[in-house]
Design a protein that fits this description.
The structure is a single chain. The protein has 676 residues and is an alpha/beta fold. Among the domains are: 1-37, no CATH class; 407-483, Up-down Bundle (Methane Monooxygenase Hydroxylase, Chain G, domain 1); 612-660. The strands form 3 sheets. Strands 4, 13, 14, 15, 16, 17, 18, 19, 20 and 21 form a 10-stranded mixed beta sheet that branches. Strands 5-6-7-8-9-10-11-12 form an 8-stranded parallel β-barrel, surrounded by 6 helices. It has a 3-stranded antiparallel beta sheet with strand order 1-2-3. α5 packs parallel to α6 and α14 (407-418) runs antiparallel to α15 (424-443). It is globular and about 100 Å long. It binds pyridoxal-5'-phosphate. Residues 132, 134-135, 181, 281, 284-285, 319-322, 369-373 line the site of pyridoxal-5'-phosphate (PLP).
C-alpha cells in the first residue's frame, strides 16, 4: 500500500497531462512557432500519399498543394475548385467526380498497347476489346467507352438479360463484339439471337453444355443463325484475391470433354463456322504476370487443338483480370500488380503467337475483357470530414482526485509518472492490467463512476506517452503494434462505406485516399476514417503504402473550414455493388470535362437518390407515408395539443426530408465542420 500526499502529487500530475497532450502532434521543439515548420513541398506531399505511383499520370499534387486531375493533352484542373463550385451552387456532398477524358484515355491506352505489341511481333490478327458492363453499367461509363472505342471496334459483354437489353441499345461499331456470358434462360438466348438479326456481332458464350442444344432449338425456331463462344475451364489459376475464379473448381466453363462434345455436335449440324470464339477468364486483379502467361499459354493450346480438329475459331478471348496498381508498389501484393499495361499486352500477343507458331495453326484475333483496368481511374469519391474524435484530441476531463480514490487509480497515476524510455513496454502491460482491474472492480460495484472516469483518462495518457517512445522505434514489438491504431483520431466522414466503397468493407480492397487541398502543409494527425452509418464496420482503417498496409492515414488538423478527402481509383465495381445500409442512397455525381488553362466544365450533374426513393425500394409508397403522418398529426391535435400551425410545419419538414438527399446536409458548409 503506497501512501502519498495528495496535494504534492496533483501538481506534477497536471503538468504531465499537458506534456502528454502534445504527444498527439509531435515533439515540442524550439521550431514549433517557426513559420516554415509546417510547410510541405508538393513533391513530398505526393510521395507521402504515393500519388505518382498509383495515379497513372491522371492525378498530381499542384504547386499550390491541391489535387489536380490531369487528363492527357497537358490539361489540368484543381479538384477542390470543382467541389467548391458545386457546393456553392447549392448541391450537397458526398459526390462522385467522373472524368470522361480519363475513361476515354484508358480505352485508347489499352488498345494502343495491343496495337504496338501486334506491330512489334508482326502478329497476324487484330485486337478487339470487350467491356464487361457488370463492372460499371452507368450510362456515362458505357457510352463513353462505346464512343472512345468506336474506331477500335470495342465491344460489350453482358452477363444477364437486363445487361444484354442495355448493350443491344448501344451504338457500336458493326464489327464490335457483343458477348453474352453467364447462365442463360430461353429469354436471354432469344434476345441474343434477335441481336444478330439486327446485324450485331452477338456471340453467345456457352458456360454450360446444356445451353448448346437449347440455343440450336431456339435459333431454328427464329430462323437466325447463332454465333457461339465457349468458355473453357482452365486448370491455370489467377493470383491474388480472385484466384478461385479460375482452376478446376471454377464456377463457370466447360471442361475438355465437354468442349470436344460441343465441337462434334456442331460438326453434326454442319455448323462448325458458328463456333467463333474460345474464351477463358481466370479471375480479376491478377497480380502476377506469370499467371497471365500460363493461362494464355493453356487457352492457346486448347485453341490450337480445336483448330487442328477442324474448328474455324476467329477470336481468342483471354478474359479480364488486367490489374490496377491501387497501392502503387508494383508487386504481387493483392492491391498491386507486378507488370505494366504494355507488358501485359506484349505477353498476351507474344504467347499466343508463339504457341500458334509451334502448333502450326493460324493466329486468331485477340479479345480481352478488361473491366477494372479500364474504369477504375475515371472517378473519385469526394467525402467531407465533418468531425474528428479520438483519445488524444479531446481534452480528457481529468477529474480532480477524490478523497477516497481507489488504489487502482492511484497505481495508474504512479505508472504514468514512471513511464520512460527503458520501461515503456512493461508500463504498457501494467497499464492494461490495471485498466482491466479497474473495469472488473467497477462491474462488481467496488469502484465509483468517478474513479473509473479518472482512471480511464490516466490510462489514455499512459498510452500516449508509450506511443511517443514507440514512434521512434525501427522494430515495434508485437504487443505494441496496435497502439497507433488505438490512439488514432477518428475522422468522421459524411458518406456510407457500404454504399460508396463496398469492396473496402467486404474484401479489403485498398483505395488511395488523399486530402484535396492543404497538401503544402504538413499533416499533423494520424487518423482512421469512419462513416455515418450506424454500423461499427463502417470504417476505413487500412491504407495504401509502398511496403505495407498502413493502419492510419496522415491528415491535417481541422481548422473550421471544409476539409475534403478524395478516394481515388473507385470507378470499377464500386458504383454498382453498393448497398443501401441505413437507407443511404446513391450519391450525387458530376461529370467534369477539363479544358485548357486550368478550366473545366461540369457537363452533367446527376442527383443522388432521394429518401423517398430509398423507402420506395423497401416497399413504402410516399402517399402511404404521408397519409399516416397526416392521420397522426390530426390525432395529436386532439390528444396532445399540437396546433394546426405546428401540424403544417411538421408535415412540411417531413416532406422536405422525403425529397431530400439521404446524407448529412448543412446549410452553411463551414458549420458542418465540428467546432474545435
Ligand atoms: C467480371 C468479368 C470480367 C472483368 O474482369 P476484370 O478483372 O474487371 O477485368 C471479364 N470477363 C468475365 C467473364 C467476367 O465475369
Amino acid at each position: 500500500m503506497v501512501l502519498w500526499n495528495r496535494d504534492s502529487r496533483l501538481v506534477p500530475m497536471v503538468s504531465f497531462f499537458n506534456v502528454a497532450l502534445e504527444y498527439g502532434d509531435k515533439t515540442p521543439s524550439l521550431l514549433e512557432d517557426h513559420p516554415l515548420k509546417n510547410t510541405l513541398k508538393p513533391a513530398d506531399a505526393a510521395e507521402l500519399y504515393s500519388v505518382p505511383y498509383w495515379s497513372s499520370s491522371f492525378f498530381r499534387v499542384s504547386d499550390d498543394g491541391e489535387m489536380e486531375v490531369t487528363p492527357p493533352g497537358g490539361l489540368s484542373a484543381s479538384m477542390v475548385d470543382m467541389v467548391d463550385e458545386i457546393v456553392a451552387s447549392g448541391e450537397s456532398l458526398p459526390l462522385i467526380l467522373r472524368f470522361p477524358q480519363v475513361l476515354g484515355s484508358r480505352v485508347r491506352q489499352i488498345n494502343e498497347a495491343f496495337r504496338k505489341a501486334i506491330e512489334t511481333y508482326d502478329y497476324r490478327g487484330k485486337y478487339q476489346g470487350v467491356f464487361p458492363i457488370k463492372v460499371n453499367q452507368r450510362r456515362m461509363v458505357v457510352e463513353t467507352i462505346a464512343d472512345a472505342g468506336y474506331d477500335y471496334a470495342t465491344g460489350l459483354e453482358a452477363g444477364s438479360k437486363a445487361e444484354l437489353a442495355l448493350c443491344l441499345a448501344q451504338d457500336l461499331n458493326p464489327e464490335a463484339l457483343l458477348c453474352c456470358n453467364g447462365f442463360k434462360d430461353d429469354g436471354f438466348l432469344k434476345l441474343a439471337l434477335w441481336g444478330r438479326s439486327l446485324g450485331k456481332n452477338v456471340v453467345i458464350t456457352l458456360e454450360k453444355l446444356s445451353e448448346l442444344d437449347r440455343t440450336l432449338r431456339i435459333s431454328k425456331e427464329l430462323g437466325i443463325k447463332p454465333a457461339f463462344g465457349v468458355r473453357f475451364r482452365l486448370h491455370a489459376k489467377g493470383s491474388g484475391q480472385w484466384e478461385e475464379s479460375g482452376g478446376d473448381a471454377a464456377k463457370f466453363g466447360l471442361n475438355a470433354s465437354e468442349l470436344l462434345a460441343v465441337l462434334e455436335r456442331l460438326r453434326e449440324e454442319d455448323m462448325l463456322d458458328s463456333l467463333v470464339m474460345l474464351h477463358c477468364h481466370i479471375g480479376s486483379q491478377i497480380t502476377d504476370i506469370r499467371r497471365v502467361k500460363v493461362g494464355v499459354r493453356e487457352i492457346t493450346q486448347v485453341y490450337a487443338n480445336l483448330m487442328k480438329r477442324g474448328a474455324r475459331i476467329k477470336y481468342l478471348n483471354v478474359g479480364g483480370g488486367l490489374g490496377v496498381d491501387y497501392d502503387g508498389s508494383k508487386t504481387t501484393f493483392y492491391a498491386s500488380m507486378n507488370y505494366t499495361l504494355s507488358e501485359y499486352a506484349s505477353d498476351v500477343v507474344y504467347t499466343i503467337a508463339e504457341v500458334c507458331r509451334g502448333m502450326k495453326v493460324p493466329t486468331p484475333n485477340i479479345v480481352s475483357e478488361s473491366g477494372r483496368a479500364l474504369t477504375a481511374h475515371h472517378s473519385v469519391l469526394i467525402v467531407p470530414v465533418v468531425d474528428a474524435i479520438g483519445p488524444t484530441r479531446e481534452q480528457p476531463m481529468l477529474l480532480e482526485k477524490a478523497e477516497d480514490q481507489h488504489q487502482v487509480v492511484t497505481d495508474l497515476e504512479e505508472l504514468l509518472e514512471s513511464v520512460n524510455k527503458r520501461n515503456y513496454r512493461e508500463a504498457f502491460n501494467d497499464a492494461n492490467a490495471d485498466k482491466e482491474t479497474l473495469h472488473n472492480l467497477f462491474d462488481l460495484g467496488y469502484l465509483s463512476l468517478y474513479d473509473r472516469a479518472r482512471g480511464e483518462a490516466i490510462y489514455n495518457l499512459i498510452l500516449q506517452k508509450v506511443a511517443k517512445f514507440v514512434k521512434d522505434l525501427d522494430y515495434v514489438p508485437d504487443e505494441l503494434e496496435d497502439l497507433p491504431k488505438i490512439l488514432a483520431d477518428k475522422y468522421v466522414c459524411n458518406f456510407s462505406l457500404f454504399q460508396s466503397l463496398p469492396d473496402n468493407w467486404a474484401i479489403d480492397t485498398l483505395f488511395p485516399v488523399v486530402p484535396l487541398a492543404r497538401l503544402n502543409e504538413k499533416p499533423t494527425r494520424d487518423a482512421v476514417l469512419v462513416d455515418i452509418t450506424c454500423d461499427s464496420d463502417g470504417k476505413m482503417d487500412k491504407f495504401i503504402d509502398l511496403r505495407d498496409v498502413k493502419s492510419t492515414l496522415p491528415l491535417h488538423e481541422l481548422d473550421g473550414k471544409p476539409y475534403y478527402l478524395g478516394v481515388f481509383l473507385m470507378g470499377a465495381y464500386q458504383d454498382v455493388l453498393g448497398s443501401a445500409h441505413n437507407l443511404f442512397g446513391k450519391v450525387n455525381e458530376a461529370h467534369v470535362r477539363v479544358k485548357a488553362g486550368g478550366k473545366y466544365e461540369v457537363e452533367l450533374f446527376v442527383r443522388g437518390q432521394k429518401a423517398r426513393r430509398m423507402m420506395e425500394n423497401m416497399g413504402y409508397e410516399e402517399a402511404m407515408l404521408l397519409e399516416s403522418m397526416e392521420k397522426q398529426t390530426k390525432m395529436a391535435q386532439k390528444k396532445h395539443g399540437l396546433s394546426v400551425a405546428q401540424s403544417k410545419e411538421l408535415l412540411e419538414d417531413y416532406v422536405e426530408e422525403l425529397l431530400g438527399y439521404t446524407y448529412l446536409e448543412f446549410e452553411d458548409p463551414e458549420v458542418s465542420v465540428a467546432e474545435l
